[in-house]
Every structure is written in structure tokens, then in C-alpha cells.
């Protein structure tokens, strides 16, 4: 599993690739949090479109970044078009508090609008 971190306007965008499981979640959390705090950005977008697998540690990673964003008066958005990941997000109850978008442009438009 790998990931890249980009910024666009007031948004930290994290692109995940491959698997998001307990082997990588802690390292990713630390790096995302560090980048988010040092860049003074408002919102976080997690791009999960290229994930092949996500376990409960991925849900934990999402929840922690949601908490960070809301404490900063920002929002967290998820971008996903993966049926498996969408099902896991739905089953976890995250849809009650976090918006899911099909592409990054839609997420950016909503967060910036």
C-alpha cells in the first residue's frame, strides 16, 4: 500500500493505492496529521478510488482525520468508486457524518462552495 499527499487551496488530499490495513494505517496517520498541522489547511479529502482492500484500521484512520478536520472547523470528504470500500463505509455508519463523492472535482467543488 502506498499513498501520496497533495494540497489544493484549503484542502489536504490523500490518495491511497492498494491496501489500507493495520500494516500501514499508523504510519499513514502520523504523516497525514503532521502534514495537515504544518500546512494550516482546513479540509481533508481521502481518495480511496485506487484501494483494493481496507480493513477496520482504515475506518479508524478515517474517523481520526474526521475528528482533526472538525476540530479545525473544516470537513472531511471521501472519494470512492470501489464497491467493496463503499460497502465497508456504509456498514460502518460513516455515511451519517461524512460525505462520499465519486471524484475529487466534486469533493473540491462542495468543500470550496
UniProtKB/TrEMBL annotation:
Record-stated family: Belongs to the anti-sigma-factor antagonist family.
GO molecular function: anti-sigma factor antagonist activity
Protein known as: Anti-sigma factor antagonist
Family annotation (Pfam families): STAS
Annotated ranges, domain STAS: 1-111
Transmembrane residue ranges: none
PROSITE patterns (alphabetical): STAS
Amino acid at each position: 500500500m502506498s499513498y501520496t499527499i497533495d494540497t489544493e487551496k484549503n484542502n489536504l488530499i490523500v490518495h491511497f493505492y492498494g491496501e489500507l490495513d493495520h500494516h500501514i494505517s499508523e504510519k499513514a496517520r502520523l504523516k497525514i496529521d503532521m502534514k495537515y498541522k504544518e500546512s494550516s489547511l482546513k479540509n481533508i479529502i481521502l481518495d480511496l478510488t485506487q484501494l483494493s482492500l481496507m480493513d477496520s484500521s482504515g475506518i479508524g484512520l478515517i474517523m481520526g482525520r474526521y475528528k482533526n478536520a472538525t476540530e479545525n472547523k473544516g470537513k472531511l470528504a471521501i472519494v470512492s468508486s470501489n464497491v467493496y470500500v463503499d460497502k465497508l463505509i456504509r456498514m460502518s455508519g460513516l455515511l451519517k457524518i461524512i460525505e462520499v463523492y465519486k471524484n475529487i472535482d466534486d469533493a473540491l467543488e462542495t468543500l470550496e462552495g
